[in-house]
Design a protein that fits this description.
Helices cover 33% and strands 21% of the residues. With 175 residues, it is an alpha/beta fold.
Length: 175
């Protein structure tokens, strides 16, 4: 008989991959809390909360994050371009999660595995800012099947992180 496992029965471990997530001007603390939870689940190394993004300590972030805001490393910086430049200097491939005139479908994109990855998320209402977009290496988007052209930023991040993990486990990491 199939049964749901209790938390203590699930074999987990703290595995971090060379992957960071940047949240630009993310104003909804429930979204930020959900990003912490996704980051923990998918092995994200660190979160960068930049620009006007809300950050812990915050009651709503804490409620949604379910203690992952204490386990996932993060920094908060008002200067988003400084963070972008720092990640570029550290060798990160800078990937925006945004639909643009040149973005690649997540279905068709072999995500880089030979260097660390930084996935840049924009604000809930306006997406990734133009000043950041022009400095990213490239953008990926979630292919949409309905009439809407976007979805919740956390849902999109979940799909992108799932695909990155799927690709990472299906082919060897280049060194």
């Amino acid at each position: 008989m199939e049964r749901q496992l209790e938390h203590q029965e699930v074999a987990t471990g703290k595995r971090n991959f060379p992957l960071v997530v940047i949240c630009e001007d993310m104003l909804d603390p429930l979204n930020v809390g959900s990003v912490f939870r996704l980051a923990d689940a998918m092995g994200v190394e660190k979160l960068y909360l930049v620009g006007a993004s809300v950050a812990p300590p915050n009651r709503k972030i804490k409620r949604t994050a379910r203690a992952t805001d204490k386990r996932v490393a993060f920094t908060h910086s008002v200067d988003k371009l400084q963070v972008l430049d720092q990640l570029a200097r550290e060798g990160y491939q800078l990937i925006g999660l945004e639909i643009t005139n040149h973005s690649k479908s997540l279905y068709d994109c072999a995500l880089p595995m030979s260097q660390p990855i930084a996935i840049w998320l924009g604000s809930e209402n306006v997406g990734v800012s133009a000043e950041v977009l022009e400095r990213l290496d490239f953008c990926i988007h979630i292919p949409m099947q309905g009439i809407n052209s976007s979805m919740n930023v956390v849902q999109a991040l979940g799909m992108a992180l799932f695909e990155w993990n799927r690709q990472r486990t299906q082919r060897p990491i280049d060194h």
